[in-house]
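quick one before i forget lol
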Amino acid sequence: MIDYFGMIFETANIIRRISMKRFFVLLILFLLVAAPALAGGVTRVEGGIGPRGLALGGAYTAVADDVSAFYYNIAGLSQVEENFVQLGSEIIFPRFSYERPAGIFGAESESKFVNIPMPMAGVIARLNDKLVFGLGSYMPFGLGVSNSESWRPGKNFRKSLLGLGNFTAALAWQATDKLDLGLGLDFGYAQLIYKAPLHQIGEAVFNPAFLKNEGDGFGASFRLGARYRLNSKLTLGLSYSAPLKATLKGKTAVQLWGRPLFEDEFKTHVQFPARLSAGLAWQAGQRLKLVFDADWYPGQPSGLRLDFKHLPTIVQKLDWQTNFSCHLGAEYRLNESWKLRGGLAYLTAAVPEITANPVIPDGLGYGLTFGAGWEKNGWTADAALCYYLADRRVERFTGNLMPGRYQMDGLVVSAAVGRKF
C-alpha cells in the first residue's frame, strides 16, 4: 500500500526549504480543490439591537423611539420631541458545540469562552416641526465562533467572524398627522476572519492543509422607513434596509501540519442581506403595550470570490437561504419613571445544510428577553437581558459538508444611557 501521508509529509519538508516548489505545490492545491464553504450565520439570533428593542424580543419596528431606530425604523426618529443623544452597548456571550456522527472522522468540539461587544451610539436633532436629522452607529450583523486548537480529524475548524458595523445618516419627516417617513444612508465597515481546513469533500476533511483568512473593508447602502398611526391605539411600522456590498482586502496564510507554507493577499466582496420588516404596536391599556414584528431576509444563491495576488482565484460556496424571524413583546408602565419589558423571538436558519460547519453558528433560534427602562429629568437608562438557543441536526447525505449535531446558546447583556437637551 502506498503511504500517501508519508509522501505528503516528505513533500512538506521539501517545500519548506525551497520557496519556488512551495509556491508550486500550493498552486496545485488551489487548482485541484475547493476551499471551505463560508456561509451565513450573520443574522442576530436574538433579533434585537439596543436595550429597548432587545427587551421587547426585537419587536420594535412600530415603536422605534430611541437611537436603535437607525436599525429598526428610521421613520421613528420623528417621535423625538427634543434633541437626544444615547450611548450603549451589548455584550454577547456565545456558546457552541458540535458533535459529528460516529465513524473514523467522528469528533466533538466546544467553543472557547468569549465575549463580543456590540456598541451603539447616536445623536438626534430636531430641525423644525416636521423634520428630524440623526447620526447613529451600530452593528446589525455579526457573530462568530472560536474553537480550541486541535489537529484531530474533524476538530480543525478554529475560528470565524463575519461582522458589519454601520454608520447611518438619516432624515425623518412627519408627512401628516398620521404618517412618518424616513430615509437613511448606510456606510458600513465589514470584517472577515475564517480559519479552517483548506479541503473538504462531504465527510472527508483534509486537516493537514489549513487556511487563515483575515480581511476588512467598506461598503454603502440605504434604508427606508414608515410609521402610520391607524388610530389612537394601533400603529403600523414598515422598514426596508437594502443589501450592503462591502469590498474587503486582506491576507491568507496557508499551513501544512501546522507549519507555514505560503502567504498571499486577497480581495473579495461580501454582500450582507437585505431586510424587510413589518411591525404592529397596540396600546392594549393605559399602562400596557403589546408589539409584534415579522422580518424577512432574501436568500443569496452565490459564492464568495477570492481574488488572490499570486494564487488562482477560488470561489467559496455561500448559497444563503431566504429566512425569516418573528418577534413578540410587551411593555408595562409602572409609573412615570419606570417601565418593564419582555419578549420572545424566533429565527430560521440562513445557512443551508450543505454548507453548515463548526465555525458557522446558525440554526433554528429562539430568544427569551426581559428588561427595564427609567426616565427622569431628561435622562434615560435602559437595560435588557436575553437568553437564546438554537439546535440543528445535519444528516449524512451526499454533499453535506459537515453532518452532525450543532447546538448554540448564549446570553446577551445590553445597557444604554441617554440625555435629552
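fyi Residues 1-18, 23-43, 151-155, 199-206 have pLDDT under 50 and may be disordered.
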